[in-house]
Predict the 3D structure of the following.
Amino acid sequence: MFIDMINRKRCTRGCIRDCAFCGVRKIEPDFESKSSIKGEIKKRKIVFYDNNFLSNDYIEDILNELIDFKKEKKILWCESQSGFDGRVLKEKPYLGKMLKKAGFRYPRIAWDWGYVQFKEIKEQIDILCEGGYNFKNIYIFMLYNWAIPFEEMEKKRIKCLEWGVQIADCRYRPLDQISDKYNSRKEQTNEDYHIHTEAGWTDALVKQFRKNVRQQNICVRHGFPFYSKDFERKKFREMMRPVKLLATKEEKIRYLEKKGISFWLPDEITYSDGKSRNEKIGQAK
Ligand code: SF4
């Protein structure tokens, strides 16, 4: 029912980039842009399925059309299924404001490469914030189980925590892989799904990273300094209130331990044995 109310759209084919892990260039080798979608909007919620929405040669025209639709209340919101290309945002920072005015919600930008890119990624996030977005409604796309090793991915995750943005994690699968029997509840091997052992990934690390991201996103969404399974089961807001009032991390830990509440600290690298190492944000730079 809900799905029927959504207008699925594409304004471009292909992509201007050629990322090593992506199959778009093989499937759609030619890049094409539409200059208008005026006659095509039939519903009030729009999801764009472009590979690289912002790279449209007529992106300003498309966004201006959407801004007019929004003003006229002909549309409620828009989403982009793929992330926005942060390099285009940096070239045209005014697009941040236009996206917001056009009703785009939960914008996502990709951080596919190493931790070293963090300054550039922060600049891209800031463009969206200057456009009117809240940090916690911005998502960073992160490809894991790929060439970036687990520890470096954890440092990237912790950086997102520091910024207060959420993560949209994406498990790498090779382009020629036909079957994928990934099961988050089972121990598995490379026979079940692709594990990128070349970069040191194991089944346990793949699953641990997924878990760390999920738990961290809950912390970011609700402004919690810790994640606890108990928060999911019980009345977590009530349980969190006294913890938030405590001034230091040590006091919070003492309180949680005294109450027998299980907790996880998102600001430390957490390995697949469930243990954290003392590599906090400051040391991860
Ligand atoms: S920018 Fe996105 S769609 Fe384009 S090649 Fe890279 S990953 Fe694929």
